[in-house]
Specification:
Elements lengths: L2 E2 L24 H14 L1 H33 L4 H49 L3 H7 L1 H43 L1 H5 L5 H37 L1 H6 L3 H53 L5 H39 L23 E8 L9 E8 L4 E5 L6 H8 L7 E6 L2 E2 L5 H5 L2 E4 L8 E2 H6 L7 H10 L15 E2 L8 H15 L3 E5 L7 H15 L3 E5 L4 H4 L3 E6 L2 E6 L1 H7 L2 H9 L6
Parallel strand pairs: 1-7, 4-11, 4-12, 7-10, 10-11
Antiparallel strand pairs: 2-3, 2-5, 5-6, 8-9, 12-13
Helix pairs in contact: 1-10, 2-3, 2-5, 2-10, 3-5, 5-7, 5-10, 7-9, 7-10, 9-10, 14-15, 15-16, 18-19
């Protein structure tokens, strides 16, 4: 991972990077089950205790209806008040025991859920940090943000609330149905009335997972579009793209609405069918039980007990079915969170096992590159050697491949064919810590991270002391930092100090000073700044670039005029390479660009 100081828009695309995000993978059902089992095994004792307490609570719940049936039979048999009082007291005790066991089960379940969610959040952050920058940029920050917030929160709610509730309810339902069968097999058959609800649940489950995945994808798409539009508002206004962005937003909102309506329809079928399924078994027990009682096959107390058991089924089944939607939604969310396992990762190697660059020379040899490894090549057979300390400018028309070559030189992308090396070691294969000391990419925008000034600077040099941080700020002319109320401990961002555009860029450039790379790649670092801010930034850049190799992706040719050499890219090929004066004298593509930039068309 290169130390990229800035990004050009919300998705990180610059220059000729193609539009359109590449969706991150979604885990399949089998992978989600394996991941869930791994999480359970991590806290197996708490999970087992939760199951035991649930089973005991469900067993205690059977005692009350059975005792009520005994009360009915005792009264019919002429039993006295004392016998009834003893049974009533037993009912109260059983209810209290059930309450305590159920509360204990929920407490254990909630703690299990919180610990598990913490592991999921940690794993998610680790996996995001392990993604190659190119994957993150092409996927878009909206998808990653939605997965890390909405989806993780949905999984958290399920583990914390739904899982304990469903476990308790499922145990109660199984015990109640078993008790009805024990009271009378024919009465147990009345429980088949629940089948209409189960059939509705089966119908729902076959459709819900896909529907909720579609809803999650639509949410990510809408979040990405809104975030990119808001952050690129000035560019949208400058280029007159309001109508196109509005149309894109309308399409995203329409897809979001359609997916939401689909899940709403599924719920509107499920819930009424379930409501009917609660009534049918109770009515069946009363009819069948009444007939059996008249024939002397069962006591009235047993009929009452069976009816109460089946009536009690409504509560746990209601709990289960109400959480089915949440479980389906969180299952889809978990699939999206767990899907990062299948995304490309930065290669890992044991410390010291990778070769280190022998020197600071950068070689581009026979490079071909196509985005996502498919389609037409953006770069075609590029050869270029950049000597240490050299200043080289890359110029060419829009879409020629300048920014793409810059990304390869920074190690963000790897070539499809050929090689990009520093000191004869492939740049893209370097460990992040090593790469940060080799090459830094400075693009058109900048980012201030939440935290203190010290936190923002130590991203580039975690071991730097305050003296080094202060020296880096002074090198880029950021004297304003010394005047902050808490100095390096001043919080930045919402609720703290908000640096302006020039100050934010100075913080980013101070990180470059701290990283101390031998090569800096500039992709029009001042292009989007106002003239006053640009002047401050250019002065700071001059301090940063002193004594370093500089590769400038020049969209404005005054940058090329001052370079040691100029490389001209056309349709992905390096067609010219030389000094400014030599290329102008040659009368080729660069000369045409130079004359056109100065408003002197060639005659």
């Amino acid at each position: 991972m290169t130390t990229t100081v800035t990004v050009s828009d919300r998705s990180g695309r610059t220059g000729d990077t193609p539009p359109g995000a590449t969706a991150l993978p979604v885990a399949g059902p089998a992978a989600v089950r394996r991941a869930a089992l791994r999480l359970i095994r991590r806290d197996a004792r708490a999970f087992a205790l939760m199951l035991v307490l649930n089973a005991l609570a469900a067993g205690a719940g059977l005692v009350g209806p059975w005792l009520l049936g005994r009360i009915v039979d005792t009264v019919r048999a002429g039993g006295g008040v004392r016998a009834v009082d003893r049974l009533a007291l037993a009912v109260v005790v059983s209810a209290l025991v059930q309450l305590l066991l159920a509360r204990g089960a929920r407490y254990v379940g909630h703690r299990f859920g919180e610990r598990t969610v913490a592991r999921i959040r940690t794993q998610y952050v680790d996996r995001v940090l392990a993604l190659p920058p190119a994957v993150v940029e092409r996927a878009g920050s909206g998808d990653l943000t939605a997965r890390g917030t909405t989806d993780v929160a949905s999984v958290a709610r399920t583990l914390r609330d739904a899982a304990p509730e469903v476990c308790v309810a499922a145990a109660q339902a199984l015990f109640l149905l078993g008790a009805v069968v024990v009271l009378g097999p024919l009465l147990g058959l009345c429980g088949l009335g629940l089948l209409c609800g189960l059939l509705a649940v089966r119908w729902y489950l076959r459709r819900a997972h896909r529907a909720y995945l579609a809803e999650g994808a639509a949410t990510s798409e809408l979040a990405e579009l809104l975030a990119a539009t808001a952050e690129g508002a000035r560019t949208v206004e400058a280029l007159g793209l309001q109508e196109r962005r509005w149309a894109a937003a309308e399409r995203a909102v329409r897809r979001f609405r359609e997916t939401r309506l689909r899940t709403l329809f599924l719920r509107s079928v499920l819930l009424p069918a379930v409501d009917v399924s609660y009534v049918v078994p109770v009515a069946g027990v009363l009819l069948v039980g009444g007939a059996l009682h008249r024939q002397g096959g069962i006591t009235l107390g047993a009929v009452v007990t069976a009816a109460l058991y089946l009536r009690q089924l409504a509560d746990p089944l209601e709990t289960v079915l109400l959480w089915v939607e949440q479980i389906q939604s969180s299952g889809a969310a978990f699939a999206r969170v767990e899907g990062l396992v299948g995304a490309p990762r930065l290669p890992k190697a044991a410390p010291g096992t990778r070769p280190l660059p022998a020197d600071d020379r950068i070689d581009v040899t026979g490079v071909h590159y196509a985005y996502d490894g498919a389609g037409d090549d953006v770069l075609r057979g590029v050869d270029l050697t950049i000597r240490p300390g050299e200043r080289i400018a890359l110029v060419g028309p829009s879409g020629a491949g300048k920014s793409t070559l810059g990304r390869l030189l920074a190690g963000i992308e790897a070539p499809r064919h050929g090689s990009v090396t520093v000191g004869r070691v492939p740049i893209a294969s370097l460990d992040p810590e090593v790469l940060r000391r080799q090459v830094v990419l400075v693009t058109q925008e900048h980012h201030v991270f939440l935290g203190t000034v010290r936190d923002n600077l130590r991203i580039a040099a975690p071991e730097a002391d305050d003296a080094a941080l202060t020296a880096a700020l002074a090198a880029v002319g950021a004297g304003w930092a010394e005047e902050l109320p808490a100095g390096l401990d001043t919080e930045l961002g919402p609720g703290g100090y908000r640096p302006d555009g020039s100050q934010s860029q100075q913080l980013a450039l101070a990180r470059v000073v701290l990283a101390d790379p031998h090569t800096v790649i500039l992709d029009e670092a001042t292009a989007l700044l106002d003239p006053r801010t640009a002047r401050h930034t250019e002065r700071a850049l001059a301090a940063v670039l002193a004594g370093r190799t500089v590769i400038a992706i020049a969209h404005r040719l005054h940058t090329a005029h001052d370079a040691d050499r100029v490389g001209v890219l056309e349709a992905g090929r390096l067609t010219e390479l030389g000094t400014h004066d030599a290329l102008v004298a040659a009368g080729g593509a660069y000369a045409a660009l130079w004359e056109s930039w100065h408003g002197r068309p060639r005659g």
